[in-house]
Amino acid sequence: MVIKTLIVLMLLVIIGSLFSALYFLAKDKNGGERTVKALTVRIGLSIGLFVFLLIGYYFNLVGQV
């Protein structure tokens, strides 16, 4: 149950980062440093979640549905 909660929380944080990048894209007229940083965070979190799922599947922490 803890693993499922952690996965859902990670997905929510990833979606939040995506929406913050959208907000920065709309509000920042010059440059896009904050947008790029938000998207970089999102990519890092997505890769981390993917690796976590692979490790969880390997150690049978994440079962098949």
Describe this structure in words.
The chain is an all-alpha fold. It has one domain. It has two helices and no strands. It has helices at residues 2-27, 33-58. The longest helix is centred in the N-terminal third of the chain and has 26 residues, at 2-27. The protein is elongated.
Describe this structure in a few short sentences.
This protein has one domain (2-58). The protein is 80% helix and 0% strand.
Number of strands: 0
Overall mean pLDDT: 91
Order of helices and strands: HH
- How much of the sequence lies in strands comes to under 5%
What's the N-to-C terminus distance? 14 Å
Q: What brief labels describe this structure?
A:
65 residues, elongated
SSE arrangement:
Blueprint: H1 2-27, H2 33-58
Helix pairs in contact: 1-2
